[in-house]
Amino acid sequence: MELNNRFEDVIIPRDKIPEIDLYMDQLTTFMDEKLKECKRTEDERVLTKTMINNYSKDKMLPASNNKKYSRAHMMLLVLIYHLKATMTIGDIQTLLKHIGEGDELAAMYDAFTAMQADVAARANEALSQTLAAAEALLPDGSEKAKALAAVLSLSLEAAAKKRMAERILDTL
Question: Measuring CA to CA, how many Å separate 91 from each of 12, 22, 82, 87, 167?
Fold first, then answer.
């Protein structure tokens, strides 16, 4: 089974984030373009105005400055986007509270993008191993059965890692 597993295509290094403040439409366009590989369908939106407003209302994101969003806003939105796939809004709020602002945020964001690159490399390797394991478990199974077994395995692994992350976060 051949898959397009280009996990590294969604990494946005800090030096690729605009240094100028962006208006809401510019911000959503930037995020949609940079994270387009995360979308499952062409018409899916990575980020909407409503989402941004809700993140601000939930204190996950500082208020805009004269309707403009800074580099710090963009870093936080990238973090939120990736974290919301596996974490609750409450857990993301807790995590962001501990990350800090300014240089602390920049350092954590740089660490995050470095981790993304490492995880992408390991995920590509792990996917091959998961597909091989599905093949070994179902050697006489159809391609569909092997694909379903791989989905089940990846889902179990994701759930286990999510629980580990929650336990660590609970210690904070």
Answer: 23, 27, 13, 6, 11
Write down the domain spans for the chain.
7-170
More confident residue, 25 or 128: 25
Q: Looking at the DSSP assignment, which residues form a beta bridge with residue 22?
A: 69
Q: Which two tokens stand for residue 61?
A: 């994101």
CA distance 70 to 56: 13
28, 49 Cβ separation under 8 angstroms: yes
Q: At 133, which amino acid appears?
A: A
The whole-chain average pLDDT of the chain stands at: 88
Task: Provide the H-helix boundaries in 14-101.
Answer: 24-34, 49-57, 71-83, 89-99
Q: Is the pLDDT of residue 4 over 70?
A: no
Q: Answer for the pair 77, 52: CB distance below 8 angstroms, yes or no.
A: yes
- Identify residue 124 by its one-letter amino acid code: N
Distance CA 139, CA 145 (A): 10
